[in-house]
Fold these 3 entries.
Entry 1:
Amino acid sequence: MTGEDQRAVVVTGGSRGIGRAICRTLARPGTHVFFNYYTPGDRQEEEAAADETCKLIESAGGKATGIWANVADKDQVKDFFKQVMDACGRIDVLVNNAGITRDNLLVRMKESEWDDVLEVNLKGPFLCIQIAARVMMKQRSGRIVNIASIVGVVGNPGQANYVASKAGIIGLTKTAAREYASRGVTVNAVAPGFIETDMTAKLPEKVKAAMLAQIPLGRPGTPDDVAAAVRFLASEDAAYITGQVIHVSGGMYM
Ligand code: NAI
């Protein structure tokens, strides 16, 4: 099979957590999974995590490419997608998953905390959708899935920046869905509740217990729970679904 025959799947923030589970779940023979990853922290640790994601994709029979690229940086995003197009000449699925938190009460929130979160969580998806949608519209097919959050719908004290970014991604999803529907491209969002990943591991035990008490299904979610919803929305079976937000929250939001 040549590169041009491969189905191309692009996942942002694939080195860990939910993004890694999405990469593994979408991987199969005939599929090339491209993912990016980035941290202002320990690059070596992030690269080791990315290598692990590549192994999981390959074990599922897919081809894997992990690229160090910041979704908030236009040039790095352009270069990331260039590598996808050079290898496959097409983009079948885009999952905007990369996301960060910089929590603080609104009155104490620094401008940099606001800007960092909005840049990664909302400008990142905007930049990626702009590039991928052009390709998908020409193909007259494509699936875009954005990872939002339950808090983007219900709000959360201490997360004004994050909540604004996640509410924003829901609006972005619905607008992109309307703009691209006539070209066979669907755009949906998945809104996870409380999922066990590095992002939530740093929450205080008291906060975790309070969240758990609000989950009717009585357990935190796993990255695989979220990836299963993404797999469905990225599949042929979801051809008639667009502009929707699917909550994967154990019933936290109904
Ligand atoms: P995580 O912190 O475990 O992993 C984040 C991933 O994003 C990593 O692969 C990292 O390399 C990548 N990343 C971070 N900044 C980046 C940047 N500037 N450019 C490119 N990649 C970058 O996070 P987790 O928990 O797996 O979250 C994934 C998504 O799910 C995020 O959008 C998050 O907001 C959302 N989410 C998570 C929930 C949870 O309970 N864990 C709940 C609701 C939504």
Entry 2:
Amino acid sequence: MVQWLQCNDEADLEVLRKRADAVRSAQVGDDVHLRGLVELSNICARDCLYCGIRAGNASVARYRMSREEVVACARLAVDFGFGTLVLQAGEDPGLTGAVVADLIKAIKQETDLAITLSLGERDLEDLTAWRQAGADRYLLRFETSNRELFRYIHPPRVGQPERDRIEHLGLLRSLGYEVGSGVMIGIPGQSYDDLAQDIELFKGLGLDMIGVGPYIPHQDTPLGKSGGVPLLGVEQQVPNTLVMGLKVVALTRITCPQVNIPSTTALATLDRQTGREQGLNWGANIIMPNLTPVQYRRMYEIYPSKAASTETAEQSRDTALRQIVGLGRVPGRGRGDSKHFQTLNSFKNN
Ligand code: 5AD
């Protein structure tokens, strides 16, 4: 794994890409599923050293979308033919268990959309209530399997016990969610060994969805201001480049053949022309077009120059469809549930 991660020979990398693309085609097919992304609040109680919407960043204007605004996004997702709505936010104390449960019920009452939550580390009570209200999936990246590095870039909430994200993922699974996770690539202090461990852990956790993207420094964060952890030597430090991201997508596909892998916005941000398509060519099978109302887009700046931060929902959809068709792939129909999840459960039931 480390050798592949360190490989820079173009011909060898083309072998890796082709292999990942073949596994993708054989295991999850040519469908590219579209998940409508709604960034419903940028309010966050946490102070992650890498993230632009961290509580300590006073230069961000904060917003929380109303119930009606979110439901309108859900209607848009249905109009666009998407099968899934992803509700993502910071750890916003105003998004209480009851508020989110109510939102889930409202969307489920009106639509057949699958609902994916990405709302951070929440307690058992909330996660249980949301599952009961009808939420289908949960995304929580573990960011890095290097515990020391994770603790450094992701300090615990003041006055609250530290939560172990790996245990948290097990909890989500036990509640019956399809579970997604992932990492950032090229965090200062992240070694090739760490990254190889991350990919091994993807497999060990039996994830249904895996999202990865290069770390992009944000100038209003401690890590982005170069005051962060020192980089390792060139022999060890993982670079936060597009090609590194693509290698990780390919190795993830080969290691976890049936998982759903998005071609992430971070990849598209590093190369606006081709990043998204390259992700799809290196093993990814999911795109998450942004449905967040345009007036909020710029405020959800987890990293700078985020791709698609000014385009409308219609433009996001049109771009995605054009890219899918251009690659000879097929826009997915229906919810696009995880094959991995289905395989797992058919074993359990037999
Ligand atoms: N660069 C790249 N990805 C980031 N994320 C947060 N901040 C950054 C950044 N500066 C990613 C994290 C998080 C996801 C929602 O966005 O992996 O889990």
Entry 3:
Amino acid sequence: MAAVSSATESNVDVIVVGAGFGGLYALHRFRQQGLSVRVFEAAPEVGGTWYYNRYPGARCDVESLDYCYSFSDELQQEWTWTEKYATQSEILDYINWVADKLDLRAGITFNTRVVSAVLDEDSMRWTIATDNGETVVARFVVMATGPLSSPLTPDIPGLETFGGPIYHTAHWPHEGVDFTGKRVGVIGTGSSGVQSIPLIAEQAAQLVVFQRSPNYSVPAGNRPLTAEEIAHAKATYGERRRLSWRSGGGSPHVAHPKLTMQASPEERRAAFEERWQLGGVLFSKTFADQMIDIEANEEARKFYEGKIRAVIDDPEVAELLIPNDHPIGTKRICTDTNYFQTFNRSNVTLVSVRKTPIESIDESGVATSEVHYDLDALVLATGFDAMTGTLAKIDIVGRGGQKLVDDWSHGPRTYLGLGVDGFPNLFLVSGPGAPAVLANMVLHAEAHIQWISEAIVYLDKHGYAAMEATSAAVDAWVTECNQRADATLFPKANSWYVGANVPGKPRVFMLFIGGFATYLDICAEVADAGYKGFALLKAP
Ligand code: FAD
Ligand code: NAP
């Protein structure tokens, strides 16, 4: 039975923070099971990532047909994606369409930031406070606050003195930006920079790209979906999703059956070529051992290097653009359209700020150790305080006044990425300790919400008031996540997965690397065993 909770109730079963893919499904699912729910969203609208990141070229890098809700076949059948990788605006249209269809808006309080969440141990209730002064009490709190929702602005001397406009890719103006005739500087060459640079270059009079670390990027091969492809996908969605749920990354593609060096050179090349044609980030999963065995990884890297050198005219520019400081795939592979070809244009300059660091910014532009670049506009594609940054902005206070930020001062500690010891009935969605950004995050969010929803049903059915990860379970999970990461090549990179992009952030691999299906199996085993590793608590 669906409960109808108004957006004014001050005492509810569940508070959900965030109205992106995760929070919206949480609202729908909890309502369906008869719980009263309040959702708080800092933005004026739904969408999360896809509400904010409106920079030119913003698209998903998981195929559109997979990067959408699977929980309702009606939704899958009714919505029709137009391109292999949907644009930000199409994804946002989709999220808005779902919100309307499931009547979700009435349950969301927009323009409202949750500033604190405090546990009352006597009543085993959470009180959340918002930036507009409201307080609401709930049995459960679900943090669907997003792993990539706290944009980072670099600490460059004089940034605030720049005379022209400064745009962060994650806070792009809704009306768009016209760079025609302008001298533009872009700082940052991660996925956001790599997607936006080619389009900015087409418009701007001059573009200067300030690159600190070169990144691996594989062409998206984006194109319109044909009517036949859409009909086929809709007719076979069940199987497509089944494969995705059983996969390492939440999409229906499987690695080559042999290990890299077991395949003959011809087979190897053909497998890499097939993945190259598939496009984008999945290149890192061509062979199952590619992210574990450095020799295997080197084969992928050599194939990659050949492809990229072939499209860059100037060998010196190619040398700067091809990474040599981390194995391929140990940072998220970017998914681009004409990124490397952009550096063949006469109006584009690549500046390696490793060789010539940015020293300062002044009213008229950016000064490196060698050159002052006069600029009219500046784009910051400088990423996020990922996984923990957004949670750290909320004053989350658990047992005995313990604060989550203090608990995590040496790195995040969770059990399954879902629960934290000392914080009963507080659940994280796509947080640290889960595969999160290593998987298709729409399915990942669905999996988390389903698990939390079933846990609440279990608690209610068995007369429990709360569940709390035990310290032993958290310690064991943190150890398991570290051990699994250490058995791969991932820790070799200074990536945001390990917090390397945020000065002073503890260096810990923040994700569960064992694969999406393996992770789901572990979560299911825990639930089947009566929530092993969680203490189940009767009402105080
Ligand atoms: P979000 O979409 O980040 O939503 C969280 C919401 O919580 C936000 O709206 C925020 O305003 C709100 N919030 C946070 N704190 C508070 C607070 N204190 N009070 C109130 N509200 C709060 N993943 C993929 O799997 N495939 C992709 O192709 C892909 N592409 C991406 C492209 C970009 C540009 C970026 C930045 C990320 C991409 N991701 C991708 C990751 C993406 O973040 C997830 O896929 C997904 O959209 C996350 O959904 P979410 O609901 O968990 O979080
Ligand atoms: P990012 O990968 O962290 O890239 C940030 C870039 O800014 C890096 O090149 C970084 O250099 C550079 N940078 C940061 N501070 C700098 C400074 N002070 N001076 C010079 N350069 C600086 O962030 P992102 O590109 O926004 O992507 C983050 C994640 O969001 C992705 O990995 C992906 O998961 C997701 N995303 C996906 C897509 C998609 O294709 N669908 C698009 C965008 C984002 P260093 O590498 O040297 O730190």
